[in-house]
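Possible regression after last week's pipeline update?

I re-ran a chain I had predicted before the update to compare outputs. Posting the input and the new output here so someone can diff against the archived version. Not blocking, just want to make sure nothing changed silently.
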Amino acid sequence: MSTYRQALPQLSDRIFLTDGGIETTLIYHQGMELPHFAAFVLLDHDAGRAALRRYFEPYLSLARDAGLGIVLESATWRASGDWGDLLGYSREALADVNRGAVELLAELRAEYATVNSPVVLSGCLGPRGDGYQPESIMSAAQAEDYHSEQIAAFRTTKADLVTAITMTHSGEAIGVARAAQAHGVPSVISFTVETDGRLPSGEGLGEAITAVDAETGSAPAYYMVNCAHPTHLDKTLIAGSGWNGRVRGLRANASTMSHSELDAAESLDIGDIEDLGARYAALRAQLPQLTVLGGCCGTDARHIDAIRRHATG
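New output (post-update):
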């Protein structure tokens, strides 16, 4: 049913874009209410689905016009068991939401994909707890059990892979990778880091990547970093030895603020758009395998366009 599950095109040396900060865009630019930062609730009605289409379409147009591929993440970062319970969704309704989120992306792919601009569909997973402060550190076995339900829903769709976004510790990432492996779906692990380049758990980025690879037989197709500004990780990433070659993607925040500062902020900080693009280009000059480029909190199509211009210029 999927197009690229057996051979992900972003594993080549071509640049692939991603979308930006979906929740911050929907809240601050489109005026949507997202309880507990859950964009998946928009899939319950036509107006919400239309809003999601409006969110994705500028990124698809940008990639197509530039002749670049794009990886789209489903609006399901919060669509897992605990968050579904909190928002009043049954397990059946939650599975329907996850499938419906990928169906929406598949419709968009049919409209926008070209030979020169392939569109890869990713089923997005989020952390079981808070994306900034892990309330508890799950074991790998607990994480595998927890995330298996959402991955099982994605397996029956046109999703080409699953991506665990904003992972805060290696145990949860190991569980996700094992669950995806068990369901026969490629996985990508995207860690978030604090201003010191370390995960919220205190683990070093290299330490976490090495641990996941060691415990899963290098199951993830590649790794990413998201929800952090390039200034929070550039030195750590460049100085990495061996493990940094596994990091293929970056979805940075627009702001240089820390997670705690962003949590307390009452307005959206879009940062310096051109500087952000230049920092991506500087990282790619030293890490040419960094080819999956997009944004996270505070970023929109303007940021992705700047990243595209600087990275391909």
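Follow-up from reviewer: compared with the archived run. The first strand starts at residue 16 and ends at 18. Marking as no regression found.
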